[in-house]
Amino acid sequence: MHDQSDNKFYITTPIYYVTARPHLGTLYSTLLADVLARWHRLKGIKTFFLTGTDEHGQKIAQAAEKAGKQPKEFVDSFIDSYQKMWAEYELAYDRFIRTTDSYHVKAVQDWITHLLNKGDIYKSFYEGWYCTSCETFVTEKDAEHTTASSGPKCPTCGRETHIISEEAYFFKLSAYQDRLLKLYADNPDFIIPKERAHEVINFVHSGLKDLSISRTTITWGIPFPGDTKHVTYVWADALNNYITAVGYGQPERKKEFAQWWPADVHVLGKDIIRFHAVYWPAFLMASDLPLPKHLLVHGWIRVDQQKMSKSSGNAVDPQALYDTYGAEPVRYYLMRQMAITHDGDFSIEDLEQRISSDLANDLGNLLNRMSSLAHKHGLIDVPPVAVWEQAALDLRDECWSMLEEVEDYMSDFLVHMALARAWKFINTTNAYFHAQEPWKLAHSNPALFAQVISATCHSLRAIASVLWPVMPRKMEELLTSINAPLNQEYDTLENLELGTWDTYFMIHHIPPLFKKPEPKEPQESKMVEKTSEQANHITIDDFTKVELLVGTIEQCEVVPQSEKLYKLQVNFGDKGMRQILSGVRASFSVDDLVHKQGVFVFNLKPRMMLGMPSEGMMLFANGADGAPKLVTVAVHVPNGTRLK
Ligand code: MSP
């Protein structure tokens, strides 16, 4: 499906929000891109693989504030863990872009200026329901059933939204509706898999409104050129990474830009399809730039039938997986288990099963049996075979059809299918080896024995080559052990398909390629970060660390800059008065709270909220209606009384 006539391949991953260390979902997107990049390198195609981090916007600013850090200092603190983990998992990217890199910032500003001058960006006024978590306004259609007091839930993440009204710059998205529809109609392979295109086409059909691309309510972002009250909306900043990373807007990198752009494939998860399939092509059309050839949209990794994410508390820690199993078995499992087109379930049991049966038994043992037998009978140099027996010729034909079919699957980006096909051939080779009974031939017919070893080496060479993008280090070990190293100067695959079976092998016996995981207690608990329900018990010492005190709310004031916050003055008796901010305005009036006794976490680290200190936290219990209810004591007790 993918056209490689220009003999270059430019592939990207989404750039990740850096609010925490990488998780298995972000590893998956990056791994998929790495495997496809390596596949193209194997075919001798010049390849550029881009990944990086998305560092601006309200989500990051809020996370930084929570951590008591400046946003830049906060994001800097995660970069090492990304780069270290990507190195451990052998993700061979060519560039790691950070949206705080100065070349990116400047190029985005130039891009905006260009579109302002063209009239594709203009200034106006925006009011709408906004999801802070997704940094996006809820569309009118999604907000249809909204009453004035309660906003619609965010259609993407399901969280609450709130009204924002602000002066904003707009991108003339509405002007591109017809061109976008034409793009989808003319390029049925633009969105892969095709089924995912329907929701995009329906969305565009239902009418596009201009897109607000600046914010005045936040400061952590790229300053809008010529209007410093505004910062650039995080998606208008982030999507442009795909062009700025290869030189857009940087005159000294003009050649590089011409060489790589347009991207061949943007890899992304299904949750961010709208940004990539609607906004991004429209931005590019407005900039008179060619469009990416494909969006490869993968599903979610699920744990216990839910999308795996930090916020659901079921995130699998890729570091723990790496420490236990090593990079390559995990790479193989993720690529084999997850059908790109669907969501897939992660489980340690399946992972261990795949390592034992596919890697250690089917593949590892094949190499091991062949090389130990050859060594046992003094066969180290394996010369080319003059006349092949029929069984070997059949195996060779199978090998060639495997190469062709794997190639077809890979050019459709169906890595899991390619792996399944390669495994079918591994099993064919195992069956051939077994049926030939080479341990008997070693005595009765040494020439035929050498032929069986040679045929097995030829098969292993083809297998290791097609598996190299998924398990590069192990497959290099395998190829070295039969003295057939990869040469990436030419199209390795074509060479294997067209070449006759006439290679001279030399066999070095190496330790088993893959170790079977030892039967032990279930690992799941170690790998999966616990949800609150599964949390470990705490000791009494842990509990006594938390000072829970009763206090009386003497004053309660509205915080005008916020829709949610009250500023409380709380009397803790001998322990004094404290100012505590609490976001419960939607559920309580001032009178509901004033003069009431409540329960407070007294020794919580003080923090600044909207420039005001908050020195503690008031406790509430969510009622059946989901709204917070006051937590108090049944009879009045002296202020400052500690709960124990
Ligand atoms: N910063 C934006 C992307 C901007 S691209 C110009 C963003 N970042 S993210 O960190 O939230 O997510 C990045 C990618 O990780 C998405 O493609 C998302 O689908 C993927 N994954 C996050 N959780 C995932 C799973 N549980 N499973 C598979 N991939 C998932 O969105």
How would you describe this structure in keywords?
5-stranded antiparallel sheet, 7-stranded parallel sheet, binds 5'-O-[(L-methionyl)-sulphamoyl]adenosine
Task: Set out the fold topology.
Blueprint: E1 8-12, E2 16-17, H1 24-42, E3 46-54, H2 58-66, H3 71-88, E4 95-98, H4 102-118, E5 121-131, E6 136-137, E7 162-171, H5 177-186, E8 191-192, H6 197-205, E9 211-212, E10 214-215, E11 231-232, H7 234-238, H8 241-244, H9 254-260, E12 265-269, H10 273-286, E13 294-298, E14 301-303, E15 306-307, H11 318-325, H12 327-337, E16 344-345, H13 348-376, E17 381-382, H14 390-411, H15 415-436, H16 438-444, H17 446-467, H18 472-481, H19 492-498, E18 505-506, H20 524-527, H21 540-545, E19 548-558, E20 566-571, E21 577-582, H22 590-593, E22 597-601, E23 607-609, E24 612-614, E25 617-618, E26 620-622, E27 628-630
Parallel strand pairs: 1-3, 1-12, 2-3, 3-4, 8-13, 12-13, 14-16
Antiparallel strand pairs: 5-6, 5-7, 7-9, 10-11, 14-15, 17-18, 19-20, 19-22, 20-21, 22-25, 23-24, 26-27
Bound molecules: 5'-O-[(L-methionyl)-sulphamoyl]adenosine.
